[in-house]
Design brief:
Layout (H helix, E strand, L loop, with lengths): L1 E6 L7 E5 L6 E4 L10 H7 L2 H7 L11 E2 L4 E3 L9 E5 L3 H10 L12 E5 L21 E2 L2 E7 L15 E8 L2 E2 H6 L15 E7 L10 E6 L2 E7 L7 H9 L9 E3 L21 E6 L3 E6 L2
Parallel strand pairs: 6-15
Antiparallel strand pairs: 1-2, 1-5, 1-12, 2-3, 3-4, 6-7, 8-11, 9-10, 9-15, 10-12, 13-14, 13-16, 16-17
Length: about 300
Amino acid sequence: MKLYTYQIDNDGVDRIGVECAGWRGMLWPLEAFGLKFANMHDLITHITPAQLSRIADAENATEGNALRLNSVRLRSPIPHPEQDIICLGINYADHAVESARFHEQSFLLNREKATYFSKRAYETIGSGDPIPSYEGFVTELDYEVELGVVIGKDCKKVSENEAPNYIFGYTIVNDVSARNLQTEHNQWYFGKSLDGFAPMGPCIVTADEIAFPPALDISSTVNGELRQNSNTDHLLHSVAEIISELSQGMTLRAGTIIATGTPAGVGMGFTPPKFLKKGDVVTCEIKGIGKLTNTVE
């Protein structure tokens, strides 16, 4: 099933909705199943397996309460993460090549171990929300479609075999980046953490819907032009490896978001680069999850 955070008529009230298998385009308010959680993080942290099973079947919902998905304003599924997003750098081989070509000192090749960094995300934005251009400050605005992994329960020192048991679900993250800040400061945190640089959504697909390890077509377009086109099966460091390695030294709390890296085709990878400008429409898509679309303003 797919879980959404949404608002009705832009009333400022975040609600949780469920799109059940076999009912594409229909959204049931969580309350229709007799459940209520303060927000998606609260749901991830406290929902029981029995409750998850209940909301997966539309037959368990109160009749007459379904909404059309296209009639609501979609928010990021987790609008206010409890912690920064954990990100993977250079986790597709073809992206490593294009990154080093753009700025070799900032994007080193031949790293045997995973490269981790964090992305400040006090607030993530949803599909349909604008990406700020920061005109005069950001001169090289870029996009990065990534598979987002949402941790479902606290984990510490788990093995790769155990890792799938700790995944709540998957989403799409656009790791928007200011390349000029990234290279000028010779670190990634600032250039990837400006307000509005963490589009996420349109939903969370629960882990039971996607075979593990996830091998999903992943792509991005800018104004309809295909830019990135790959598959998550090409990750250099797998989802299981990432969760296991991180958990050896830190507790991954329920609700933690991990952005697993981006494939080739980002703006800086072209010659000359194709950076974003005002009015550009960026659509990130992962098969089985959906589309995340944002316009630069």
